[in-house]
Amino acid sequence: MSALVDVAASVLLSNERRIETIAQNIANLQSFGYKSQKMKNVSSVEAKPFSQVLSETVVGADFSQGRLIQTSNSTDLAISGRGAFLVRRGEELVFTRNGGFTVLGDGVLVNSEGMVLQQVGGGDLVVPNSPLQVKEDGTVVSEGRVVGAIGLYEPDAKGFISNPGGGYTDAGATPVADGETIVRQGMREASNVVLSDEMVNLMAASRLAESGAQVMRQYDNLLGQAISTFSGTGR
């Protein structure tokens, strides 16, 4: 009898995580650079320990390319291909595909959350207060002179930890190989969330959650019948 409860609990727990992930994706539908979080498909319903259910439900980010949007702002940058920008938040380094930057008075480029863009080899990228040209390889040129190069890093979809707003942390990230990434100046990358896919996933998760709830109702009915039977016989 307890196996029924284990099955129902496994289904309900995995679908709670699934629905939370779908809700996060939908909430970030308009977030620049956001990468959709993907869940494993449930191929069977079976009893599993909670720790196993938690480890099997979340896969990580889908790093497929999002649509590039023209902005004509010289400090807006988009990545076409692999990799991510490296930005600094205090002492923490974060990787992001959101390339909406602004130049501050001291020459550093920051995003909307105040995170500072990092250069190749580490350290804040500092640029002069003058028109900038960003080449496809990330080299930054001002008044005909190279003033730095933007650091681009290869994301590990399984190792990255998602942060609010589409950022990721992973100490094991490596620089992107030459020729695998193009930096587009005056553009930003849209979220790669597909709303229709998320709605289909939500309906599937709802059906599975109902299956788990139905198992629990059946268990309650059987338990009630057993109690009534034993009470009637005086046992």
UniProtKB/TrEMBL annotation:
SUPFAM superfamilies: Flagellar hook protein flgE (SSF117143). It comes from the Bacteria. Residues 78-140 form the Flagellar hook protein FlgE/F/G-like D1 domain. InterPro entries: Flagellar_FlgE/F/G, Flg_bb/hook_C_dom, FlgE/F/G-like, LlgE_F_G-like_D1. It is found in: Bacterial flagellum basal body. Keywords: Bacterial flagellum, Cell projection, Cilium, Flagellum. Residues 184-228 form the Flagellar basal-body/hook protein C-terminal domain. NCBIfam families: FlgEFG_subfam (TIGR03506). Belongs to the flagella basal body rod proteins family. This is Flagellar hook basal-body protein. It comes from Novosphingobium beihaiensis.
